[in-house]
Amino acid sequence: MGLCFASRPVLAAQTQSGVGAAVCVEEAKHKQRVLDHPVPKPKNREQFFVDYQRLEYEELAKIACSYQNIRVDCHHNTQEQSMKILVVSSYFQPAWDWGGPVRSMWNLARGLVSLGVDVTVLTTNAKQSGVVDIPEDRTEEGVLIITSPVLGKGRLSQANRHGISTGLWKNIVTNVGAADLVHINGFWGPTPAIAGVASLFSRKPYIISTRGNLQKKAISDKKVKKQVAFELGVKQILRSASALHYATLLEKKWSPGWAQIINSIIVPNPIEMKLPVDRDFFRKKHGIEPETLLIGIIGRIHRRKGFDIIIPALGKCASARKNIELVIVGPDEGYRNDLVQIITREGVEGKTKIVGELKGKELDEAFAGLDLLALPAHGENFGNVVVEAAIQGTPSIVSDQLGLMDWIKENDAGIVVPLDVDAWAKAIGEIDRAEIQCHWEPERLARIVRENFSIESVARQMLEQYEKILSGGKRRGRGKH
């Protein structure tokens, strides 16, 4: 791998008022001489990083200090510096069609910035349906986002699927040395591996958010070539991490034995707290009677969401429950035709409604309008929609293969049912709408999710874990949990 890349290193300077300012080399035009500074040809890769970091820290620190009109000794800085976190993610906002992980990383990044952390995100412009048209460099809510073009532009091309971008790889190698810690989103594809290797070369700690992909079933379901690649390279990158990040304890328990002995951190997904909306608007808009028990599945229309469980269960109890309806909200992930076939086969066309994708306030109104959110998931590491529904005061009925299952039980935030058609048919058949409204008070549900999953709360939890790693207590590789 060639390491001497001409790219944009980023450095954060601390102003007199204590506010961190991200300064790119190009922005300090009046210090153009630094861009022309001759970097001696390194004798080896390790020497390259020593030389490059020296130039980056000394020269760029002088530029940043001059730019902010502060006097700082770059070798003996007495001012407290912001923690610098480099986030590496093959996909990032506004590519929302990649689902929960993109939204979670964005919420975490802006939450960390609000706590005074300097966050730089390296990503691509890939989305599932092509590419997003966004500036190469931009700052949003204090987060510096450096975007590189992905090689593929077609829907679900291999380059899009894995976020393959040589520009991103160059930016990783260039910027990793200036970070205190590297946070890698996911581990499939070449980008996480490059980020891990670059961190090791630079002697920087890194953590990897596994995003549910370390479940035994998730690995065994991969094609043979992916399983071989996992054994030959990916596993070592995971083993060498300072920590593996799981969203729930159950997600960790689902991981293989060799992964469970690696140092781990358990921090939930941060969820944006929304204001409550009208709970009757969605029903009125879609012609649903007030006395109807309304159950909804909200999320991507995908085979793992459990439609093969809830539709047959609805069919079993439909004759006994006249006032029940299932509404399905979300974008199609190539499964809609199969879903329609299941609905037709079970004879519940009159009791199901496919609304399609909703966003913003319309989505909040859908959450608020339900009596129960349903998530009969086939192994999902978290379940953002459960929290989003609870924000609007709606409880959930979920499978026992959902990462948030224990939290739901402990906080009485819904019903947990085994992933079985008969069990779901029995549970749905016994649900009384009046009892739901009496038992699950919307105000209590909203309060407990704010305490556990707000952006600020989760960002503080993650920052505490970063600090533990950087303090030396949890450095790299295996360790006590």
What is the gyration radius calculated from CA atoms?
A: 24 Å
Within the largest sheet, what's the order of strands? 7-8-4-3-9-10-11-12
| Annotated CATH topology of the largest domain | Rossmann fold
User: How many distinct folded domains?
Assistant: 3
Largest sheet: 8 strands, mixed
In CATH, what is the homologous superfamily of the largest domain? Glycogen Phosphorylase B
How many beta-strand segments?
A: 18
Q: What's the end-to-end separation, in Å?
A: 35 Å
**Could you say which overall geometry the principal axes of the C-alpha atoms support?**
globular
What is the number of helical segments per DSSP (H or I, 4+ residues)? 19
Give unreliable regions as ranges.
Answer: 1-9, 11-79, 473-481
Name the helicity range: 25-40%
* Share of residues in strands: 15-25%
**Structural class by SSE content:** alpha/beta
Quote the average pLDDT. Answer: 80
Based on the coordinates given, report the CATH architecture of the largest domain: 3-Layer(aba) Sandwich
CATH class identity of the largest domain: Alpha Beta
